[in-house]
Amino acid sequence: MINDDLIATARALPKIELHRHLEGSLRLETLIGIALEYELTLPAFSAETLRPYVQMMPDEERSSKRFLGKFAVLRQFYRSEQVIKRVTQEVIADAAADNIKYMELRFTPQALNNIMHCDYATVVDWVCAATKDACAQHDITVKLILSMNRHESVGIGELVLQAALDYQQAGVVGIDLAGQEDGYSGLPFSDLFQDAKAAGLGVTIHAGEWSGAANVREAVEQLNADRVGHGIRAFEDANVVALLRERGTVLEVCPQSNIDSGVVETYGVHPLLPLYRSGVKTTINTDDPLISDITLSDEFANTMQHGGLTLADVKAQTLTAARSAFLPEAERRALVAQFETWFNA
Questions:
Q1: Which of 1-5, 205-209, 271-275, 305-309 has the lowest mean pLDDT?
Q2: What is the pLDDT of residue 93?
Q3: Which domain covers residue 83, as residue numbers?
Q4: Strand order in the sheet with 100-107
């Protein structure tokens, strides 16, 4: 259980989220509504009975297989423009309700499009439009990151990059390499990330989550990542930790997700604290709030109660997130200044 005072403190803090997947952030009640509207075949038709199929349960085995298995059910729901716009707006509303002031929300066009089979630009357009509408309704700024999977073809990655380039003026600020890390090198995608950087897009690479420190080195040295999604297994190699420190590469750490997927056992042994203390730039994120049944406030409170961080540490990592946002320099400086004002007040 989270200490009541800590969770209240965490909820009151203005926050930044750099690593949240749209596909892992849906509301249970919305899933039921979509299933009924589109007459989907589901294992259960109430929120509580559906929950074990899309969310990690307390007594469930913690493993990457179990964690990723939740997405098998979730992929059935992307049936129309209306659905995609609705879930995008709800994800942003939920983030704003948690006092998140700036968020970079990532999504995989292929995952949203595996039933409709329309072109990626259409799907990206829907998410961009819904994001703009949601930000106008809530006290939050949201930018978008498009993801491609390393276990899928480079051809798919090329389409994702083109969609990102086409929608830079509509809020797309970066691209991401996700998918099955173990057994799939990111090197076949290196030219795409070079092109993305040349065009002014930020680059974030999932690495050092389900495979070791060598993948973090690859992300930094070969794929020229600005940020690394997770990256916590860098701690297994002191040379990779030194590389992250020297390059100033930022880690998007998602503690509860790492526990739920079996990477670490508890907050108490999570590498976040030692990485942070070693001088690596770290940030705190949720990854998939639905699957882990958490908010960013929960993550902040848990890292303080069980992970050894202080409130000052959490604020410092939030400022690191502001400084590493995929924004033009003037906007990034303004974001940092706003958070410094809030925290000093």
A1: 1-5
A2: 98
A3: 4-344
A4: 15-21, 100-107, 141-149, 172-178, 202-207, 227-230, 250-253, 281-284
Q: Residues 95, 96, 101, CA angle at the centre, nearest 5°?
A: 100
pLDDT in tens, 207-225: 999 999 999 999 999 999 9
Place of tokens 């995952």: 111
The share of the chain scoring above pLDDT 70, in percent, equals 100
Q: Indicate the SS3 state at residue 99.
A: coil
Active-site annotation holds for 209: yes
Question: What's the alpha-carbon Rg for the chain, to the nearest Å?
Answer: 19
CATH at 44: 3.20.20.140
Q: What are the pLDDT digits (tens) for 41-53?
A: 888 778 889 999 9
Total number of domains constituting the chain: 1
pTM above 0.90, yes or no: yes
Task: Give dist(CA 167, CA 72) in Å, integer.
Answer: 28
Outline where the chain has alpha helix (H): 4-12, 28-38, 47-54, 64-74, 81-97, 109-112, 120-137, 154-166, 190-198, 213-221, 238-247, 255-260, 272-277, 289-292, 296-305, 311-323, 329-344
Catalytic-labelled residue, pool 17, 181, 209, 252: 209
176 φ, ψ to 5°?
-140, 145
